[in-house]
Amino acid sequence: MLKGDSCLRLNGKVLLDEDYLRSEGVTDFTRYRCDPDVEPPRMMPRALPDLTVQEEHEQLNILNKDSKL
C-alpha cells in the first residue's frame, strides 16, 4: 500500500503490484527489469476473473444476523 492509502478502500481486493502502482501514477518500472533495455512481456491477465459465489453472500447474511456485536 502506498503511504496514506486507506486500507478500507483496498481490503478484500486482489491487486497486482504493477497494475496498482500504475493506477496510482507510477509509470517507470525500468529499474526492476533484468535487462534495462528489454520490456518484459505481461505475465498476468489484465482482468482477473470474478470468483464470487452466491453462497458467500448467503453465509455472510447468516453470520451478520447471529452476530452478538
Question: What does the model show?
Answer:
This protein is mostly helical. The protein contains three helices and no strands. It starts with 6 loop residues before the first helix and ends with a helix.
Question: What's the arrangement of secondary structure elements?
Answer:
Elements lengths: L6 H4 L6 H7 L30 H13 L3
Summarize the structure.
With 69 residues, the protein is mostly helical.
Helix content: 25-40%
Low-confidence stretches: none
Largest sheet: none
Count, helices: 3
Give the N-to-C terminal Cα separation: 29 Å
Specify the structural class.
mainly alpha
Name the helix and strand elements from N-terminus to C-terminus, one letter apiece: HHH
Which descriptor suits the 3D outline? elongated
Kindly state the mean pLDDT as a whole number?
A: 77
Q: Give the radius of gyration.
A: 18 Å
Strand content: under 5%
Per DSSP E runs of 2 or more residues, the count of β-strands stands at 0
Task: List the defining traits of the structure above.
elongated; mainly alpha; 69 residues; 35% helix; 0% strand; 3 helices
